[in-house]
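help with this record:
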Amino acid sequence: MKNILVIDDNLVTLQQINAQLEENYEVSLAKSGHQALLICYQIVPDLILLDLDMPDLDGFETMALIKKNMALSHIPVIFLTSTHNTEVEVKALKNGAVDFITKPADKDILHHRIEVHLNLSSYHRELENKVRMLEDSIIASFSDMIEYRDESTGGHVMRTSQYVKILGQELLRQEKYLSELNDFTVDMMTRAAPLHDVGKIAISDVILLKPSLLNDDEFNIMKTHTTVGAEMLRGIFAKVPGQSYHDMAILIAECHHERWDGKGYPNRLKGEDIPLCARIMSIADVFDALVDMRVYKRPMSHQDACRVIISEKNNMFDPNIVEAFEAVQDKFAEVKGHHF
């Protein structure tokens, strides 16, 4: 059964609409924009009926906060209004509303409008899922290209994606960075992570496959895979329909070698100036490099790799993410044991 969230500071209106809808929908009621947002964080509604004229947060302000949240931005919003005002309606439609219903709402009109926009929303989500499947296939292809270039890193991009997911979920469980993290953003990070090394496509095989440590000049060239990768992704994403993970993929590609202490590259960002997605990717990337066979080194044991990660708390890595890593290090071992 679809969930409808009704937001109105008038209790009579809330009770009336609830009575009209409760036989066909699960109805959530909110007397203010703030209360509505709290409800949305617990139960993501399928459609929102939103009063325009409310104290504290009015309808426009409430809708702006809803649309700003990536996990809620897809929800169709129908405004409830007591008066017909063309300028207000045009402003609302430009800001993301899908329709208007005049109060007091006629039951038949209310049901008809809700069904129309639920069906449109469902169709839109279906199209988005198809685009997502297409883009995920493109990501997999890029990942394969990277793997084929460097046989010594087989499975790296897919394992690191799983590490990112594990860390993101643990940070959520520990209630860290809740202003930036939710189930939706963790999913976006997981989708974006396989593209973190896409810039290595532009690095010469002489450097990429060198069976010994790189000299300074070679390492400086290798460093460019971060900025080159970000530019490549900007060019690719400019030509395809926008997806929520695009910006995150670019940030991860460019910033996953930045360090918490500011000694990383390419921009020597420090602390929380480094995007959260890149700070998470950094631990995933380094851990897998430590435990994996490379042309220039033998793999490290899981226990030794964990000690290295933990020892770099506050130096290379965000201390909060290291604490999350400590809690889930056994899950990392399970991923490494799985053959991708």
Q: What stands out?
A: The domain at 3-123 is CATH 3.40.50.2300 (Rossmann fold).
